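re: ur question from earlier - yeah i can do the single chain one, its not a big deal. heres the input i used so u can compare w yours
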Amino acid sequence: MTPSDSPYSPATPPPSAERLLLTSALVGGGLTLAAHSLETQRRARTQAAVRAAAVKVAIVGCGEQGNVILDILLKIQDTTDATESAHIAAVCDVRPLARETATRHIEQHTGIAPHAYADFSELLEKEKGLDAVFIATPDFWHEQHVVAALEAGLHVYCEPMMSRTLDGARHILATAAKTGLLLQIGYQRRSNPNYRYALNVLHKGYNVFGRIVDINTFWHTPVSDDKQLTRKETAATKETAGWLKLAGFNNAHEYCNWQHYKKYSNGLVAGPLAHQNDFINWFFGKPVGVLAGGGVDYYNRDCYAGDDLRWLARENYDNLFCIFDYKVDDLVVRASLRALTTTGSQGGNPVHIHRRLQLIPVQKGSGNTEMLKGVSSVLRLDENENFMLLYLIRPRGNEAYAARDLWRKTFGFSFDLRSGAEKLGFLIEHFEPEIDMRTATPPPDYSTLPFTLNGKHPVQPHIENFLRVIRHNPENDPKKRPILRCDAATAFASEAPLYRVNEAVEKQARLVFDAADFSTVNPPNLKQK
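and the output i got, formated as tokens:
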């Protein structure tokens, strides 16, 4: 055998006797280790292939919601299907601890550390090859960040609300239209298969509710202390003061609790109620008027005696009640939205008590429940699908027979929405089910909805929709081109009434909307009645 035929090149000398002995031992008793090594290599190759084909993104804002997005993107990236995958190339947050935590988490999961930035403008300048950014910063920054990203040629996924001001939302909408880039607003119920089933099948398809007579939503959370920085950050006085000043906050309390301050946030109406308002507008269109009440009735200094300063008095309301009026088939339907920050009862974080060493749930539900009430049925919707229930109402008289026949016709057979849409006799517009959803046969007096997210986070289908639309090439198959579930125009039309809610509270008057309130250009012309 000539030197050129040898399996060992000059740069790779023959193995030593010790190495040969080690190899023999591995062959005899270390097959498991070898198999593990092969699996590790296979997974590394798979991840590399996914990253190469994935959408290259940055996450801007690595706080609570930014971390939700981060975890979902990492979960999606684990799949071998790169059509909906994203590679997190960069993160951005003014808070050093947030940047470090996000960077470490991504590196531990993928083996590759993203680039980290404190300044979003620096990210846009230096980070090349990005396809999209996820904006999860406080509301008052949304206009600045979304507009800059769009003008830099990037697609954008932005957490709601679009902006702290109506003019800011208009600016975002105009920029999205001018650039022609994708802008998805994070009203994730529009991509949730449970909610889409309720709208397209139960409501539009079979009208199982009959006439809708009431819409009721609530979001309750128990009393909690104000958020604070960590002890390490508090101790680093000079460093902390520096990035707080860069962020534009007067102090750490404003940074940690920005939702409580009017200059940073519209309060409860911009948080939980924004999602529930969007759900109602998605189902029933634009409201015609609003009546609202609320106040800072608990989190104020008058409620405390002594030096207990676990929180400061809030500027934004700690409770809010809204009643929106809708015209549905020329009939008035009222929707009540309720947010409380002082109790977890009936729709907040589950409260538990210990009884005989067992953990007993006092109430069942989560903080984002919506109920559609009709003369025939009542549907309880919830992002926690364990609490989604469909109730059969037993009307009196002849209506009882009509309701019974309706349910028999509705649920008297099973079908697969993927293959049997034609059997239903109606069109499911833009319906893209990710999972099989089959009806129960027959339903009892109450029934859980017949499908599941299959372990997905409620936000995940919405992010998948955004990534799917980015990756789609209309030249390949224009007929099946997916659409964004909540683009800028859709979100703006839904959000516009919310900017008047706090005004309705202050004026203690019912406000009536007209076309000007939903205008993307002209200032609103608000009437009082």
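The chain has a mean pLDDT of 77. not sure if urs matches, ping me
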